[in-house]
Amino acid sequence: MRIGVLTGGGDCPGLNAAIRAVVYRAARHGHDVIGFLDGWKGVRDDMARSLAPPDVADAILRGGTMLGSSRTNPFAKPEDAERVLATLDRHRIDALVAIGGDDTLSAARELSRRGRKVVGVPKTMDNDVAATDWTFGFDSASSVAVDALERLRDTAASHHRAVVLEVMGRHAGWVALATGLAGGADYTLLPEQPYDEAALLQHVRAGVKRKGFALVVVSEGVDLGPRKGSAGGKDEFGHELLKEREAGPEVARRIEAATGIESRSAVIGHIQRGGSPTLFDRILATRMGATAVDLIEAGRFGEVAVLRGAEVIGVPFDEALREPKVVGPGWIDLLHTFDA
Ligand code: F6P
């Protein structure tokens, strides 16, 4: 067989580990692998390279994606969809592995509905893909954010300040949850909860009273109400771009204005998405990439490799593309157990 592979959407640590697993598992079965560059853009515009085990031997160590990525929607225009099918035919692709989040997997499902043999691998630092317990990229990104919070703790303590750390997570607060919980924040704002300024100020004051400083984690997706600079535009899949919203700096301004406590903010943005994957992400990405090839071998097209408990299994695209997975009440309750 000739197996195609692509990575689409925002990059995250573990993508190279997944590509490597696809290539090695395919090679074991005697299949060739063709990597498409820059996500669906590479399939639309015919940009490809062949991939053999020596090309990916050390890839498990590296962040980013060696294939490149983009947020291209290949079904945005009918002529683009035709170009996608023509590229797959030109390369005699028997089956395609699409590695990505909701948007990339939605396009993969559409290709599958048009009769092509496609399987999916979920990835995203946001951890918001339905049907999988965890996505790779999340553990690495959250670990970077926790490290940032620990550094901010030192300087917040030295200067007796309130410090706000803004972390990524488009509409799901998983990274903020993990950072607040594991980093010992005094309060954490998630998009899953309505913004409650009175609670925020109460916990900041309590933190300062107890130990002389306060740490607040804010998810970029928190809705702070209408204000300047919130119009960041939309991407090709219709998602609002959050880069202009500056939730963290705004929360710091509000804390200082209401309490008089000197406040600062830090936005770590794409720093969270770079760097070497953690052990957890390397192993998860490896298992999912290998399982994607196993699904192809078994003729189980139209499925996505997901983590359920301790097992990586295949589920239909529709199941993986239900509503995005958000932080549930049990997690929120645990998080607020540790509020200052
Ligand atoms: O979806 C992953 C993600 O990192 C979000 O957490 C973030 O809002 C978005 O991508 C940023 O996208 P971009 O890399 O296009 O700025």
Residue runs with pLDDT of under 50 for 5 or more positions: none
**H-E string:** EHEHEHHEHEHEHEHEHEHEEHH
Q: State the secondary-structure class.
A: alpha/beta
Architecture per CATH nomenclature, i.e. the level-2 architecture of the largest domain: 3-Layer(aba) Sandwich
What would you call the quaternary organization? Answer: single chain
Shape: elongated
Question: For the CA atoms, what is the radius of gyration?
Answer: 21 Å
How confident overall, as mean pLDDT?
Answer: 96
Q: If helices are DSSP runs of H or I spanning 4 or more residues, what is the number of helices?
A: 12
- What is the CA–CA distance across the termini? 58 Å
User: Largest sheet, if any?
Assistant: 5 strands, mixed
State the helicity in percent bands: 40-55%
Number of domains: 2
CATH class of the largest domain: Alpha Beta
Task: Tally the beta strands.
Answer: 11
Furnish the topology, listing elements before pairings.
Blueprint lengths: L1 E6 L7 H14 L3 E5 L3 H5 L3 E4 L1 H4 L21 H13 L4 E6 L1 H12 L4 E5 L15 H22 L2 E6 L6 H10 L3 E3 L7 H15 L2 E6 L27 H13 L3 E5 L11 H19 L5 E6 L2 E6 H4 L8 H8 L4
Parallel strand pairs: 1-2, 1-4, 4-5, 6-8, 6-9, 7-8
Antiparallel strand pairs: 2-3, 10-11
